[in-house]
């Protein structure tokens, strides 16, 4: 088992960090959606699809 961590420890750490970052991004997107924020930062006033926006 020690041999496994010596050989693949870096891969495991990098993978764990990437999964954590992905989790945090998805969590922020969900929280923003629940607060009514749109996906873009432009606003809906001048948007072509402003009337169809699903905030």
| Oligomeric grouping of the chains | single chain
SS strand fraction: under 5%
> Number of DSSP strands?
0
The N- to C-terminal Cα distance equals 49 Å
Query: Rg to the nearest angstrom?
Result: 20 Å
Largest sheet: none
Helix content estimate: 55-70%
Looking at the structure, what is the overall shape? rod-shaped
Low-confidence stretches: none
What does the average pLDDT come to? 83
- Helical region count? 1
Alpha-beta classification: mainly alpha
Q: How many domains, as an integer?
A: 1
One letter per element, helices H and strands E, the order comes to: H
Characterise the protein shown here:
This protein has one helix at 2-35. It has 55 residues and is an all-alpha fold. The chain has one domain (2-52).
């Amino acid at each position: 088992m020690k041999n496994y961590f010596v050989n693949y420890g870096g891969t495991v750490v990098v993978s764990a960090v990437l999964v954590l970052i992905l989790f945090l991004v998805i969590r922020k997107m969900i929280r923003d959606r629940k607060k009514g924020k749109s996906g873009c930062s432009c606003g809906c006033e001048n948007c072509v699809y402003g009337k169809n926006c699903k905030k």
